[in-house]
Design brief:
- The chain is of the alpha/beta class and 324 residues long.
- The chain is built from 14 helices and eight strands.
- The mean pLDDT is 96.
- The structure holds phosphoenolpyruvate (PEP) and magnesium ion.
- Phosphoenolpyruvate binds next to strand 2 and helix 9.
- It comes from Microbulbifer rhizosphaerae.
- Belongs to the PEP-utilizing enzyme family.
Length: 324
C-alpha cells in the first residue's frame, strides 16, 4: 500500500466486491482544500471553524466569517461541506478570549461556550448560511454534545438565524443540522440524539480520550491511548447501530477514520462517511479497494471478541500486511 497512489484520485472508494463508502476530508485552512480536491475528496466531513479564529487577534466579524466560509463552500460545491460551530476550550484557546480552568477538557468547551454566548453562535451560523447562498451545500455540526437539551437549544438558535436572514431578504435554505458524538453520554443516548438531527458524526479523538480517561495530548499516557481499545470499538458499533435504527446518516471524523485498519473496521460496522485528513485519504482508499466486504466483516467479528487493545492492534496490523 506504500506505492504511489496518485492514480486513485478518480477511482471510487469501494471494496473489490462493490461496497461503497464516502471518503470525505477534514479541513481548516484553505491549503487543505487544494490537497483535498487533488485527492478526490467527495465532501468535507469536518471544517474546523476555530482555525480562522485561532489565526486572528480578535473575533472575526460576521462579514469576515462569511467570506472565509464562502471560500470553503465554493471550492467544494456541489459537494457537501460540514461546518462545525466553534469548538474552543479544552486545548484550543483563543488569546483574545482566555478561559482559565484547572480541568479544561471537562470544562467550558465547544457547544457549552457558544450556548452561553448566543451572539457568537448566531453570528457564526448567520455567516455560514449567508455564505451558502446559491450553493446549498452547507451542513452545520455541533461539537461536544452531551445531552438532548443542547441540541434543542442550538436548533432554536439556528432556526432563529434562518428566519432573520429570510426577513433580511436572503433566500437561504435551512441547512441540515448534525452533531458530533464524542462524549460518552452521547454514546448511551445515540438513539435519542440521532432522532433529533439530520446526521451524526463520531469524534473518535475525543471519544477515545473521554472513554479511556486518557488526555489525547499527554505523551506520558500516550501508550494507553488506544483508538482500537475494545471499549472504544463497542461504543463505535453501538453508535452506528443506533444511528441506522433512527434512519440518520452516520459518519466519523476522528483520526481513526484516516487509519487504514480503522477504516476497514468502520466500514464493516456500517459507517457511511469516513472523514479524514487529506494526507491519509489515498492510503485509506487503497485499503478499502483491496478488500472484499465479507473479509472486512470477518476481521471485525474477530476483533470484537478480543478483550485487549494490543491484541486487536496486532491482528489488524497483520491483516493489513496480508493485503500487501
Ligand atoms: C474528534 O474529537 O475526534 C474530532 C474530530 O474533533 P477535534 O479533533 O477537533 O476535537
Ligand atoms: Mg473533538
Amino acid at each position: 500500500l506504500a506505492r504511489n497512489l496518485d492514480h486513485l484520485a478518480g477511482l471510487p472508494a469501494e471494496t473489490s466486491d462493490g461496497h461503497r463508502v464516502r471518503l470525505w476530508v477534514n479541513t481548516g485552512l484553505m491549503a487543505d482544500v487544494v490537497r483535498s480536491l487533488e485527492r478526490g475528496a467527495e465532501g468535507v466531513g469536518l471544517y474546523r471553524t476555530e482555525v480562522p479564529f485561532l489565526l486572528r487577534d480578535r473575533f472575526p466579524s460576521e462579514e469576515e466569517q462569511r467570506e472565509i466560509y464562502r471560500e470553503q463552500l465554493q471550492a467544494f460545491a456541489p459537494r457537501p461541506v460540514t461546518m462545525r460551530t466553534l469548538d474552543i476550550g479544552g486545548d484550543k484557546a483563543l488569546a483574545y478570549f482566555p478561559i482559565e480552568e484547572t480541568n479544561p477538557f471537562l470544562g467550558w468547551r465547544g457547544i457549552r461556550v457558544t450556548l452561553d454566548h448566543p451572539e457568537i453562535f448566531l453570528g457564526q451560523v448567520r455567516a455560514m448560511m449567508k455564505a451558502s447562498l446559491g450553493l446549498d451545500n452547507l451542513r452545520i455540526m455541533l461539537p461536544m454534545i452531551s445531552g438532548v437539551g443542547e441540541v434543542d437549544a442550538a436548533r432554536v438558535l439556528v432556526e432563529r438565524a434562518h428566519r432573520e436572514l429570510l426577513d433580511e431578504g436572503y433566500e437561504v435554505a435551512l441547512p441540515p443540522l448534525g452533531i458530533m458524538i464524542e462524549v460518552p453520554s452521547a454514546v448511551y443516548q445515540a438513539r435519542e440524539l440521532a432522532e433529533r438531527v439530520d446526521f451524526i458524526s463520531v469524534g473518535s479523538n475525543d471519544l477515545t480520550q473521554y472513554l479511556l480517561a486518557v488526555d489525547r495530548n499527554n505523551s506520558r499516557v500516550a501508550n494507553i491511548y488506544h483508538a482500537l481499545h475494545p471499549a472504544v470499538l463497542r461504543a463505535l458499533q453501538e453508535v452506528v447501530t443506533a444511528g441506522r435504527e433512527a434512519n440518520t446518516k452516520v459518519g466519523i471524523c476522528g483520526e481513526l477514520a484516516g487509519d487504514p485498519g480503522g477504516a476497514l473496521l468502520l466500514m464493516a460496522m456500517g459507517y457511511d462517511v469516513l472523514s479524514m485528513n487529506a494526507t491519509n485519504l489515498p492510503r485509506v482508499k487503497a485499503a478499502l479497494r483491496a478488500v472484499r466486504k465479507a473479509d472486512a466483516d470477518h476481521l471485525l467479528q474477530q476483533v470484537l471478541v478480543m478483550d485487549n487493545a494490543d491484541e486487536i492492534e496486532e491482528t489488524v496490523e497483520e491483516y493489513l500486511k496480508g493485503l500487501g
